[in-house]
Amino acid sequence: MTMVPPPEGVRSSADVQSRLERDFQETRARGALPAPDGSIGATMFDQPGSEDNSITVLLGRDKLQMAPAQSLVRIISRGDQRRYLGVVTAGPFAEPDSLRADSNILVTVATRGGDYLPSFHGRVQVTLMGEELADGTLSPPRLRPLPHSPVYRLDEKESMAVLKSAGDLRLGLAVGHEQLPVGIPSQMKSVLPRHTAILGTTGSGKSTTVAELICQAQAAGMAVVLLDVEGEYTHLHQPTTDARMRASLSERGLEPRGLPAGSMTLYHLVNRETANPDHPARQQFSLQFAHLSPYTIIEMLELNDPQSERFLYAYDLAKGVLRDTGTFPRGTASKEERDSDEQFLLQLDEFERGYPRMTLPLLLDVVTYCYSVVSKSEFRPFCKELKTPEGIDSLTKHVDKKSLQSASSWGKVRSVLWRLQRLKIFDQRSNEVQLLRHASLLKPGHLSVIDLSDSGMTELTNIVIADLLRGIQEAQENTYTEYEQQRGGGNEVAPPPRVLLIIEEAHEFLSAERIEKTPILYQQVARIAKRGRKRWLGLVFVTQLPQHLPRQIFGLVNSYILHKISDPQVASTLQKTISGIDAGLWNRLPGLAPGQAIVSFPHMTRPMLVSIDPAPGQLRLID
Ligand SMILES: Nc1ncnc2c1ncn2[C@@H]1O[C@H](COP(=O)(O)OP(=O)(O)OP(=O)(O)O)[C@@H](O)[C@H]1O
Ligand SMILES: [Mg+2]
Description:
This protein is an alpha/beta fold. The chain is built from 18 helices and 20 strands.
């Protein structure tokens, strides 16, 4: 071993050591270091820079590693014996006992390869969570622990009780603890039905978290509907084959597994591909055009004012044709049935849904007719209603030829409707194709993946999502009404399923940029969010671009799973939007590893850093 020459002013390293040892003995004699009663450290005197609710704790050298970040401690104040609970939010740091860490001596010794290690102690910063009252509840502290109060570490069981992090939908393990599970209580109405956001940069672990959540929610008997924009979740019935996931699973003593047989259905639009054509429960579906509110269509197709005006005019003409041809209200029906049709129309809110029996070919014909009038071109109808004398009569009678104007606006409306029509996704029915029945998505313990990976145009994806939101909400309302009626009649009935509706790539559907242009859509989402609380319908928004989500959405969300966010501006905006997460946790956001997340839910005492369980099911990798 090479000898390091002692730094200037110091005769020998033995000299330094004896000086430090002396300091150390004195410190111990003063009682600043832990007494042997199970405590791991003691609180330090406050300094001018000390802050409320934050206290510095000194640890003996041998206890240094016993207070990792995020672990919980109890401080029993010297003298008044008040008990405080706190969480380690910075450190553990190692500091030399008597010299400054950056003193010439220590720097020289370290950099010249000396093997002399001066005595040192640990320091952690503890954020006070509250004062523990006699009944075990926590109240905001009015005082702070006095200096040199002993500090004890809470064991896992006690930590779990304090953090209230348990829940039957297990998410993962708390960071800073050995084996402290974190979960979501699926039965609590104050948690999932108050909506969740899962945010994080690309590759931060969002999809894995979603897959894990789905798997847990399915097992807990919830009805899960997932809007899968990229077809990522279309293989969840199979166990994961990803080597890294399997290794991470086995580290946690978990097994790769797909969803139980029969508990997943994969829906995809008719005439569109699916990301997994081999799925055992694949179902093609088509949308009912009549269900779409004309206003939703306008927003989704991004029609401008003159175009919207023409679209609505055509929509009204088409309604006239449906009435005059006896399509709706039904001309052939009995008087009671016709009355009920009229009643239905009286209550119809066209901001919610469209006119019964409305079809896209009819609307397209009406628009083409108007276009042909202004452009003086020939018109030939395609739809069956306009091939009847009553139909064409109704159209020509009601149209005000002088006010039509502008071939270009009519032409534009016609071309967007044509694009929609060419997709052939509305009102199709055959042995293989069903109209989407939303009530059938509300099966307990069942996952419905709506694969939109090949929808062909964003507008279409958004139309499908809008239709699903509306349809699922309506179906859930109906189930509740039925349930309440039956229960009112004294019957023993099972309550409606708890529903979880997950929207991947939520920023594409709900964007801050578009919200001005899509007020109806936003109101619809807000309404579902509000009613969802009463009707057990929880929304989950997933996005890597939280900055593109309208701020209003954050007002609807109460729970967050925040994966790594590297953009400081995005992180700071979120910090202003989401309350209750302390600075120590926010600081860690840019440095989180894939699969780690800050988890903030209403049932928890405080937000926690969680290492999310790897997903047992197969995720399709997207390049
Ligand atoms: N909980 C986890 N445990 C172990 N590894 C994980 C975990 N979560 C994510 N990973 C790793 O990180 C990778 C990316 O995760 P994932 O696809 O879930 O991220 P993402 O946020 O959905 O990304 P994107 O924005 O591209 O959709 C995974 O393939 C896996 O290797
Ligand atoms: Mg993803």
